[in-house]
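Notebook, p. 212. Picked up where the previous page left off. The plan for this session was modest: take the two constructs that came back from the sequencing core last week, fold each one, and keep the raw output in the notebook itself so nobody has to go hunting through shared drives later. Recording the first one now, exactly as returned: residue sequence, then the structure token string.
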Amino acid sequence: MAISKAKKDTLVADLTELLSAAKLTAYAKYQGLSVADLQDLRKAAREAEVKIKVVKNRLVRVAMNEIAVYQDTDTTGLTGQLLYAISDSDEVAPAKVLAEFAKTHPALELMGGFSAEGNAMEQAEITTLAKMPSKNELIAQVVSQLLSPATDTISALSGGLSGIISGLEAKAN
């Protein structure tokens, strides 16, 4: 059933707003997924603050043409039945959500994406991005590294003089 022009205009306006604020947009083929599977994907995406949209590729192209950053973006990869994962808060969350879901649902195939700068990303790039740690994981790693010397000092002091000596010897090697 065809949708009305007013409905299409509303969809394009919503997409334009989402894509304008997006830090990353990832898209995937979803043919073969059931409605229940898509509901599970939407639930997982909501938990990661990612929005899932299933719209015609032509409407996505129209929305992208209305955004200055995306006007020269290559959209040749937008073919077939695609769903779009969009996040305005995390640069890797859309790719991670789709990649995690694809592990248990092989019918979902990560195809590509668009960065906030308007760059089109190939399948290999978006898959690599999905394997990266999230922003919160990176922050935790940095904090852990920053606290490491303090933790080592506290451990050495609580172990007495022999702990200090062995700690210094370990640092010297």
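Okay, moving on. Second construct, recorded in the same format:
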Amino acid sequence: MTTVATPTRTPLATRSLKASVADATLPSPHSPTQAVSPLGGQIRDLRAARGMRLAELAKAIGKSIGYVSQIERGRSEVSISTLKLISDALAVQISWFFQGYDPEVPDEHGYVVRTEHRRRLNFPGTGIEEELLSPSLTGEAELILSTFAPGARSGDEQVSRMAEQSGYVIAGLLELDVGTRRFRLRPGDSFRINRGESFTARNPGSETSVSLWVIAPPRY
């Protein structure tokens, strides 16, 4: 729901990275050791959800457009150091690319996200945490669980997103400023923010606010 993110821990990624050195290459997306959730596809999907062009990502990491294109198509291996540059450019931690699926249950990939495998992002100093409930950032929409600590807000200035955003308040209070309108929502209330409308969100209450957001098309 917010626009800048730094994700939380991911034990799966930690285990993977401890066995590698900084300039080691990760397995090719076509190799038997990484038959699911190819890195290239995840990079492409996250870049698209961020609204970033291929040329912009290439410039941000100091690589050629052709090289980045090959990575996204699974035709080039990715070193840990390059993946770190990519994750920084896309405003996530490197662990993002190792979450979202259970490697031991291949039949669930692309369909199911277990609680312990959610991609979790927090925003230091804001009291906001978001969890991506969708199996990936492909498709027509994404599902996000957003948690606001008491007093937390998405920002001082309203921002807009080129996507329709609908939501449902599960717990606590959620206050939305949409243009000049202000809405205070309670558990059970739902809402929609139209594509391109400017808004902010905050928790005006003394209890944690939890809400479910649907964003279409995906914009993370």
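Notes on construct two before I forget. The helical segments are 11-18, 39-49, 54-61, 65-72, 80-89.
Flagging for discussion at group meeting.
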